[in-house]
Amino acid sequence: MSDHAYNFAYLDEQTKRMIRRAILKGIAVPGYQVPFASREMPMPYGWGTGGVQVTAACLTPEDVLKVIDQGADDTTNAVSIRAFFARTAGVATTEATDQASVIQTRHRIPEAALTEGQILVYQVPIPEPLRFLEPRESETRRMHALEDYGLMHVKLYEDIARHGEIATSYAYPVKVEGRYVMDPSPIPKFDNPKLGGMAAIQLFGAGREQRIYALPPYCDVVSLDFEDHPFVASKADHACDLCGSEVSYLDEVIADDRGSRMFCCSDTDYCAGRRAAGHRGRLSPEEVA
Amino acid sequence: MMERALSILSKEKPQDGPLLQVEGLTKFYGARIGCADVSFDLWPGEVLGIVGESGSGKSTLLSCLAGHLSPDRGRVIYAGRDTVSMAEPERRMLGRTDWAFVHQNPRDGLRMGVSAGGNVGERLMAVGARNYGAIREAASDWLGRVEISPGRIDDRPRQFSGGMQQRLQIARNLVTGPKLVFMDEPTGGLDVSVQARLLDLLRGLVRDMGLAVIIVTHDLAVARLLAHRLMVMKDGRVIEAGLTDQVLDDPQAAYTQLLVSSVLQV
Ligand SMILES: Nc1ncnc2c1ncn2[C@@H]1O[C@H](COP(=O)(O)OP(=O)(O)OP(=O)(O)O)[C@@H](O)[C@H]1O
Ligand SMILES: [Mg+2]
């Protein structure tokens, strides 16, 4: 049941129209950061107010919403945002990736391939990929406008010079449709190959920085690299200790108070689905017991 | 790969006329004259010195020529293309390929947070170089050419002396093999002995690479050492121009006579 003290999905209709215009512009110019007038939301910026506003502007009463934080449906952040929309929009929620029509995410792309008709909304802390190299906003805008991206490779060059390889492992910069360089938000670079050619619409919202950008379905997305230091989508060299998956992105977690470690899928829905289907990992409870 | 990057640099048609033609170049700051009615031709491989006292319009002229300031009147034709009316992306591309700009203060021309190798490699990457090994090799080669030990390729400019920073700025500018180099008081902030070494190095590079140079200086000794021709500016206008030795040894304008004699007394 929706809470009638609020407008549907909290934001007023005029604000949602304004955000939808920014979203449409973002889809029309893939990878381009569209400024928008970010609203105060009843939660701190670190909680993804940009993503929340984009989600609010996309939701319809028929939607089924999934919210993940680092791949998990059950963190405080994910639970709160899900509860927020259940209350203000009255939409159904789910943890199943394939049941959701809108998925708001922080720092991950689900393992299961998304499909046409789904919308993936990313929470973005810093939308400007050139920010750490060029602090002046006026200059970074000009660089985007003129496709003056030499500096982006300078950053990768410095990585290799210092660490022997491209050490950037999160928020790994990409070039979209051969035009705009884009920060994919702090997803692990493991997820980068899923950005391109995805059937779902991908929307990125940065609340504090007041920017929205987007990737339309089946968009061309290339991770920046050098010929002799090609991009590699790496993950921990283990299988999931719970479901045995060898292809999913893993989190390393401390398993007990003696500090022993285990690896498990960061995508909790994917992991649970595999276990339900009978897959087992090294430390699956059934086998330990 | 590096060839592909560099081939972008040399696609314009063969040069038979002047490299740069300047006509009636004028820039106002409000009502104040920055520079006025400046006209000259610069030929490939030629070094033109611009001298004049402080406030005479030297830097203003240089900035208009290099496309950093847009002039109020006049034309600047580079290799047959009008750089005043051309679109900004095209002008920026020229700035990364055919042209180079050496600032008086290396901090204005270097990225202080980026290693020496990254500073030198930036222009190559900006025009499409994508092979790390080749970029590093070019950077290392250029550090050697400006007498910086290639062993310091991963050091930041902050760890370099003023003279080394200036030489790094020169390497960073010349790595893409430009044809025209703008320099604004390149030896300005340096000790005399450091200046002499830098001038020596510059002279060698200009000769070996056949660079055309427009160099602003108030130091007539620098002008005499580097420039084939001189333009003397006063109140934003060129009041005398000619071969360097002619202008310095037999100045015609009263102002130039003063300028030359005041330096000779030092
Ligand atoms: N940004 C500016 N705004 C207003 N006036 C300016 C500006 N820059 C320069 N001027 C004026 O334009 C004139 C020419 O200045 P410019 O800096 O070109 O001289 P300069 O010959 O390079 O002097 P210096 O040897 O001191 O560097 C001076 O009168 C100066 O005060
Ligand atoms: Mg000056």
Provide structural commentary.
The complex is a heterodimer of chains A (289) and B (266). Chain A is an alpha/beta fold and 289 residues long. Chain A is built from eight helices and twelve strands. Chain A has helices at residues 13-28, 49-58, 76-88, 137-145, 150-163, 192-195, 268-276, 285-288; strands spanning 34-35, 64-69, 92-93, 102-106, 119-123, 174-176, 180-182, 201-206, 211-215, 221-223, 250-254, 261-265. Chain A has a seven-stranded mixed sheet with strand order 1-9-8-5-4-2-3. In chain A, strands 7-6-10 form a three-stranded antiparallel sheet. The longest helix of chain A is centred in the first third of the chain and has 16 residues, at 13-28. Chain A is globular and about 55 Å long. The mean pLDDT of chain A is 93. Chain B has 266 residues and is an alpha/beta fold. Chain B has a domain at 2-17 and 44-51 and 87-232 and 239-253: Rossmann fold, CATH 3.40.50. Chain B is built from eleven helices and ten strands. In chain B, the strands form two sheets. In chain B, strands 6-7-8-3-9-10 form a six-stranded mixed sheet, sandwiched between helices. Chain B has a four-stranded antiparallel sheet with strand order 2-1-4-5, with helices on one face. In chain B, a hairpin with a 2-residue loop joins strand 4 and strand 5 (81-82). The longest helix of chain B is centred in the C-terminal third of the chain and has 18 residues, at 192-209. The model of chain B is unreliable at 1-12 (pLDDT under 50). The interface between A and B is medium-sized, with 18 and 24 residues. The site of adenosine-5'-triphosphate (ATP) has 12 residues of chain B, from strand 2 and helix 2.
Helix content of chain A: 25-40%
Proportion of β residues of chain A? 15-25%
Strand order of the largest sheet of chain B: 6-7-8-3-9-10
- At the fourth level of CATH, the homologous superfamily of the domain at 2-17 and 44-51 and 87-232 and 239-253 in chain B is P-loop containing nucleotide triphosphate hydrolases
Q: What is the radius of gyration of chain B computed over CA atoms, rounded to a whole number of angstroms?
A: 18 Å
Q: Pairing-aware structural class of the strands and helices of chain B?
A: alpha/beta
Oligomer: heterodimer
Low-confidence stretches of chain B: 1-12
**Count of DSSP H/I helices of chain A:** 8
Largest sheet of chain A: 7 strands, mixed
User: What's the CATH topology name of the domain at 2-17 and 44-51 and 87-232 and 239-253 in chain B?
Assistant: Rossmann fold
| Element-level helix/strand string of chain A | HEHEHEEEHHEEHEEEEEHH
SSE class of chain A: alpha/beta
* Number of extended strands of chain A: 12
Number of helices of chain B: 11
CATH architecture of the domain at 2-17 and 44-51 and 87-232 and 239-253 in chain B: 3-Layer(aba) Sandwich
